[in-house]
Amino acid sequence: MSVKVRSVSKHYGKQKAVDSISFDAAPGRILGFLGPNGAGKSTTMKMLSSYLMPDSGSASICGYDTQGQSLEVKRLIGYLPENTPLYLDMYVKEFLSFVANSYQLSQTAKKINDVIEQVGLQSEQHKKIGMLSKGYKQRVGLAQAIIHDPKVLILDEPTSGLDPNQLLDIRSLIKSLGTDKTVILSTHIMQEVEAICDDVIIINKGKIVADTSIESLIAQH
Ligand code: ADP
Ligand code: ADP
User: Fold this and answer.
1) Which of 33, 131, 135, 146 stands the most exposed, by the fewest C-beta atoms within 10 Å?
2) At a CB cut-off of 8 Å and minimum separation 6, what does 81 contact?
3) ipTM of this complex > 0.90?
4) What is the pLDDT of residue 159?
5) For residue 176, how many other CB atoms are within 10 A of its CB?
6) Cα(first)–Cα(last) distance of the chain, in Å?
7) Is the CB of 42 under 6 A from ligand 2?
8) Which among 215, 138, 133 is positioned nearest to 174, based on CA atoms?
9) Residue 83 pLDDT > 90, yes or no?
């Protein structure tokens, strides 16, 4: 198991957002984190990505505690936040080069070209991010999340706000990127889980109410 979460809780003031959740995620599988608005999905994704500290419990990625916030653990994780803070005035390549440098990667020019090809951004690579459609902006978001070849990919509502065609494209892209990684993606759409996930966790009001494979979930219905 490359991701282990044990009794993790998070409050915002008196608001309990995540209530003692535990789960594992395995390499080569896509785990859907399914729940309604306000269930605690984003809070969990932020804690896994080491952007937010749990109040209690522990989360580890490939044996590294996410609370350590070391460069080692950051290198293991690729994170696509729900509202990606993209730099709209930057050119696609300029932005990816900025991200590559922040990870202190070598051979950045080659890695940038490879990742542009991987996410299908060739036709847009010389444009400013602000000029791109939502679907292409999301490809830039995915490119920044995978440029350092992380072991674990955390995607917070990666298809929200996309039109039906873009949505299908981004789903199949995620499926193709996930083959050698542990992918955890949050969504409030059951069909998304059925379409691309191998396992599913259902979260409601901060608590896990189901943790199962997609096959057995479908078999129960
Ligand atoms: P989801 O991603 O499933 O919509 P969130 O993790 O964003 O859920 O939110 C879980 C709960 O925590 C919600 O009730 C939300 O309003 C609350 N919450 C999230 N972020 C904050 C914050 N920064 N301050 C206060 N409450 C928050
Ligand atoms: P998300 O589901 O990614 O948290 P939201 O649109 O719910 O996105 O929230 C946007 C921002 O506002 C986030 O930084 C979140 O932490 C914060 N936030 C969400 N709910 C609350 C809340 N009830 N009180 C204060 N801040 C909140």
Assistant:
1) 131
2) 45, 46, 49, 51, 156
3) no
4) 94
5) 11
6) 28
7) yes
8) 138
9) no
